[in-house]
Amino acid sequence: MEQGNWTMVTYFIIKGISEVPELQLPIFLLLLLIYLFTLGGNMTILMVVCLDHVLHTPMYFFLGNLSIVDMSSTTAALHKGLLIFITGDRVISYVNCISQVYFLGWLTSDELLILTAMSYDRYVAICNPLRYSVIMNWRLCCWLAVACWVVSFVEITPYVILVRSFSCYKSNVVNHFFCDLVPLKKLACKVNTSFEMFTIIEGVFILTILPLFLTIISYIFIINSILKIRTSSGRRKAFYTCSSHLTVVILLYITLISQYLSPTSNDVEHKKLLSLFNMVAVPMLNPLIYSLKNRDVKLALQRHLHQFSMKCNVFAARLLRD
Questions:
Q1: How many percent of the chain have pLDDT more than 90?
Q2: Could you tell me which of 178, 18, 209, 201 has the C-alpha nearest to residue 105?
Q3: Can you tell me the distance from the alpha carbon of 287 to that of 57, in angstroms, rounded to the nearest whole number?
Q4: What is the rounded CA–CA span in Å between residue 92 and residue 11?
Q5: Using an 8 Å Cβ cutoff, are 222 and 123 in contact?
Q6: In 10 A of CB 90, how many CB atoms?
Q7: pLDDT for 221-255, tens place per residue?
Q8: Are 283 and 71 in contact (CB under 8 A)?
Q9: Alpha-carbon gap, residue 106 to 112, rounded angstroms
């Protein structure tokens, strides 16, 4: 139903990353390769954390949760984009579009909260090492993980309710490769004041600034404790235990702030590139950062690869005998 230039929509059309015909195949192959690498890398981290008893610690427990979030968010963001390259069908139903907004908002919020929980874990490990096992017991870790998933789910719910309240849209063509909150907001005929206020209070301060503030506070105490260590080797060892987490935190917050809070965030093409990096590149880099910078993960990978090769040799020998 149309009223002037205002339209009540039942579906949206996703423009995708690029409409240049010559670029379709290279972009598809690159995205598919990155997606498979992201799934493989995070699945490997998750399996190693589950199977290796050495990694049954709070830090790697949260890392396993982070891997689940990365695999889920990349799948939620890319599945429609990849299908567009394969089938050419750019249509997504209204319900599926809103669901995509919900899941991506939920997973992004959850990732920020999990990284905040990991910063608290690093704070206890470095600032209160003698009581680390007492404070960071498995009951607390499980409660923190459940809280991250539940709180992030509850936090994003009002957003979807407010997006559902958009009565009409100027167009149903979304200039993005997935349904995101900002493009839908730009297409809405009228955005009420309550949505704008809620975006500032909930989206900027509670979902983003508060986790960042708690993470910064943790690292202020961490850095202060590291500087009090007398030996340079002790300082290096203490910083090494949190370097991977700090790298991921910096990378994620820089991309999120550049994507949503920078002056160039109104540039649609610039925003698509930032979204692509945030939803595709960051989840792919996380396993690399944790495996390359983390000695425990590398040793665990080596142990399980050695065990796997030994089992393959035994299996091959039995086949030859038979």
A1: 16
A2: 178
A3: 17
A4: 6
A5: yes
A6: 18
A7: 998 888 888 888 778 877 877 888 888 888 888 88
A8: yes
A9: 10
